Amino acid sequence: MTPAAYASAVTVPAADFRTAIGQFATGVTVVTTLDGDIPAGITVNAFTSVSLEPALVMVALDHRRFLVPFIEASGRYAVNVLAEDQQWLSDCFAGANVTPNRDAFCGASWRPGQTGMPLIGGAIATIECRVVERIPLGDHLLFIGAVEAVAVPEPDAPPLLYHRRRYLRIERASTAQVIGKPESAGN
């Protein structure tokens, strides 16, 4: 049996898959864009860098999410990496029943970035992107973004983390030097 035939014959229950994926700790981001001139955002942890040269990132959004048509219309988005004290923003942008709500941009302070995308105040890093590829895959759309601007306004602030459907904070963590292939310009 070929790998493709095997893959099409195997089905994994969604609940089991969600539990397995929940074992992977991620950072928490809010992806923002504009609906005309109104800021809009949604909590996303399906975010990753794709390439350093050229600088590319990817966000994966369920194709039914309200933000999808706004990103498609503007052709741009920003990724706001949340600090550990911004859980309330993560909850709100995820659609929690709070006031102010997501329709009111969760009451978050923001400013337009270099590309005009809404950047959330207090985010530890922001990445502004132009969509260069839209890939429909399963029940999600992958938006590959060419990075046009970055900022790290809070370089020492700890990130908000997500693991097993719960938030984590770096309280008991220790650091260790990475041992492996050293990075160099030619490798």
Give a verbal description of the structure.
By secondary structure, the protein is of the alpha+beta class. The protein has one domain: Roll (Pnp Oxidase, Chain A), CATH 2.30.110.10. The mean pLDDT is 90.
What is the structure about, briefly put?
With 187 residues, this protein is α+β, with helices and mostly antiparallel strands. The chain contains four helices and twelve strands, in the order H-H-E-E-E-E-E-H-E-H-E-E-E-E-E-E.
Helix content: 10-25%
The secondary structure category is: alpha+beta
Oligomer: single chain
Mean of the pLDDT scores? 90
H/E element string?
Answer: HHEEEEEHEHEEEEEE
Alpha carbon gap, first and last residue: 37 Å
CATH architecture annotation name: Roll
> What is the CATH homologous superfamily assignment?
Electron Transport, Fmn-binding Protein, Chain A
Specify the overall morphology: globular
At CATH level 3, the topology is Pnp Oxidase, Chain A
